[in-house]
Amino acid sequence: MNTLSRPSAQHPAPSKERLVLLDELRGFAVCCMVFYHGFYSMAALFGLPLGETLLRFFRPAEPWFAGLFILISGICCNFSHSNAQRGGKLLLVALAITGVTMWVVPEEQIIFGILHFLSVSMLLYAALAPICRRIPVAVGLLVQVFLYLGFRTVSGGTIFFGIKLPDSLYATDWLSPLGLHSTAFHSSDYFPLLPWVFVFFFGAFLGRLAANGQFPRFFYPSRIPFFALVGRHALLIYVVHQPVILGVCWLILWLMRGGLPS
Q: What pLDDT shows up at residue 10?
């Protein structure tokens, strides 16, 4: 999305004018995720009481800001020159993160986190976009809501309001990217395709309106430049924030104990 001159108030915004509010909302969501992962690291990796307290307080909000981030990512697929290329590159980054966490902090490894999820969702959208574009926006949005509601209990063994899935699907972790896994499965950051992929595709259908310049005018002006800046560099911040958090936690322990943790 390239910033163009602002159109007159009497005409809808052109599809290429930047939707700054989306940058700001994405930046806000990224900041929330950074804080959440900071509290998680303080509690799970370092056992700091303050981290445990903040994590308990913050945990109920985590699906909401993560869902906002996923929704905006779906919207922005309509402005990408190649979702397949973006998804492929992001998948390489996600797999690298899995490798690093399995080596450095195996007890808190990331198997299928939000970057894995987003990369696979982009690749799915790239493959299905020709079909999706033939579906009216309103129909697509309703279908995604129905599917999300139908699959939101898949981790508990049921779909579509009570249909029980075979226990054999949950005997191993091979299907963990879909939300089907054993009780022994653990990933410190976990966003399975079901049901979150339907939030992504809801955003993709909604983004067709944005691409046609049909979003309300209040999406275009800048209000909080800091969040907009963070939102435009979301991937970079997400990749580097965890090492920074770990370093800060080690420093806190060093100051508290007078030496490096054992």
A: 36
Amino acid letter at 150?
G
Q: Decide if 15 is inside a domain.
A: no
Q: How confident is the model at residue 144 (pLDDT cuts 50, 70, 90)?
A: very high
- Non-local CB neighbours of 123 within 8 Å, separated by 6+ positions: 83, 84, 87, 88, 91
Instruction: Give the total number of structural domains in the chain.
Output: 1
Q: Provide the residue range defining the domain that includes 122.
A: 20-257
pTM, rounded to two decimals: 0.85
Which tens digit of pLDDT belongs to each residue from 173-217?
Answer: 999 999 999 999 989 889 999 999 999 999 999 999 999 989 989
Beta-strand relationship, 163-164 and 158-159: antiparallel
